[in-house]
Amino acid sequence: MDRTEENRQEYKELQHRVKREVSKAKQKAYDELYTRLDTREGEKDLYRLARQREEREGSGTVRLQGEEVKKVQEFKYLGSTVQSNGECGKEVKKRVQAGWNGWRKVSGVLCDRKISARIKGEVYRTVVRPAMLYGLETVSLRKRQESELEVAELKMLRFSLGVTRLDRIRNEYIRGTAHVGRLGDKVRETRLRWFGHVQRRETIRTWHVNLV
């Protein structure tokens, strides 16, 4: 084997070695990135990058029937607040406030000691909870936002049953007494029901198009 052939073989081996090292470095970087994205700091980095990209790409204008559509940070659609960054914190706070408004309207019944806890629970599920759940089937709730809703609900139930946190009564007992399930479970139930409606709608729409 001449010197030229040896150099060619060494070059190929070196090239393969460099590719392997680059592949290992990429995999390590991806693993570190995925690990960081699972943390709170990673979520902040992701939102910051998405916001920067949106600012760069969103500099153009959108026109509808010749009129420029104004770009806003949030807007209301069918009674729900939609934020440009994909968050839903304002909508959750709005739902909590709507729940308290509904609770105050029927507080005369909910706080009446002569009325049983079961009846109070039925009134709560009929009047208050629908106001809190309105539109949430299409909202991607985080754990802290779901917790915010449940904390507000438990406050209402405690006021209705005439107990406070100082009484050290467990949340499960409060819910069981009023016959009110976890709000998070109800949100998931309504979300699945809404998903079923969407699935059936697409099927019916396909049938309609085929028939037409």
Structural topology:
Blueprint: H1 3-37, H2 40-57, E1 62-64, E2 67-69, E3 74-77, E4 80-83, H3 89-105, H4 107-110, H5 117-133, H6 143-161, H7 171-178, H8 183-211
Antiparallel strand pairs: 1-2, 3-4
List the secondary-structure elements in sequence, H or E.
Answer: HHEEEEHHHHHH
Derived structural class: mainly alpha
**N→C terminal distance:** 76 Å
Tally the helices: 8
How much helix, percentage-wise, in residues? Answer: 55-70%
Shape: elongated
Would you count the extended β strands for me?
4
Rg, Cα atoms, Å:
28 Å
The parts where pLDDT drops under 50 for at least 5 residues are 207-212
Give, in spatial order, the strands making up the sheet with the most strands. Answer: 1-2
Mean pLDDT: 78
Q: Can you summarize the main beta sheet?
A: 2 strands, antiparallel
- Share in β-strands: 5-15%
Keywords: Coiled coil
Question: Can you characterise this structure?
Answer:
The protein has 212 residues and is mainly α. The protein has 8 helices and 4 strands, in the order H-H-E-E-E-E-H-H-H-H-H-H. The strands form 2 sheets. The chain has a two-stranded antiparallel ribbon. A two-stranded antiparallel ribbon has the order 3-4. The longest helix is centred in the N-terminal third of the chain and has 35 residues, at 3-37. It is elongated. Strand 1 and strand 2 (67-69) form a beta hairpin.
